[in-house]
Amino acid sequence: MGEREISHCRDLHPTSHVQLVRLHDNVVLATWDFSAFKDTHVSARTTLQFRVEIFNLLKRANFNTPNLITHVLQAPPNATFPEPSPTAGQVTSTATSSRQIQLGLKLLW
């Protein structure tokens, strides 16, 4: 077996993507995605590629709009008068998912 030179940083290929979307007055949906891959030559015709992809890198919380339903009708037989909704005006969810990390190996021959 011959000696092989292993490069640690020369074949690292980082990319990033920033998305800013204005939803309405003073509300901006923002995410920052990052990906990088590194090629390792195993033989003359074979390459092993390691990939890492991170979605919502900064783990920024993008909240949904507040609940607009202020009153609800109860199920019969109590459905005579609408009652105040317990979640009226509250933000109960996010518009984007939390940080996600994806790792992968690809064998090219």
Notes on the structure:
This protein has strands spanning 12-24, 27-41, 47-55, 71-72, 83-84, 100-108. The chain has a domain at 1-60 and 94-109. It contains no helices and 6 strands. A hairpin with a 2-residue loop joins strand 1 and strand 2 (27-41). The protein has a 4-stranded antiparallel beta sheet with strand order 1-2-3-6, with no helix packed on it. It has a two-stranded antiparallel sheet with strand order 4-5.
Order of helices and strands: EEEEEE
Morphology: elongated
Helix content: under 10%
Report the end-to-end length measured between terminal Cα atoms: 20 Å
Strand adjacency order, main sheet: 1-2-3-6
How many whole angstroms does the radius of gyration measure? Answer: 25 Å
As an assembly, this protein is single chain
Please report which band the strand proportion falls in: under 5%, 5-15%, 15-25%, 25-35%, 35-45% or over 45%.
over 45%
What structural class should be given to the helix and strand makeup? mainly beta
Please report the number of helical segments: 0
* Uncertain segments: 1-7
Fold blueprint:
Blueprint (H helix, E strand, L loop, with lengths): L11 E13 L2 E15 L5 E9 L15 E2 L10 E2 L15 E9 L1
Antiparallel strand pairs: 1-2, 2-3, 3-6, 4-5
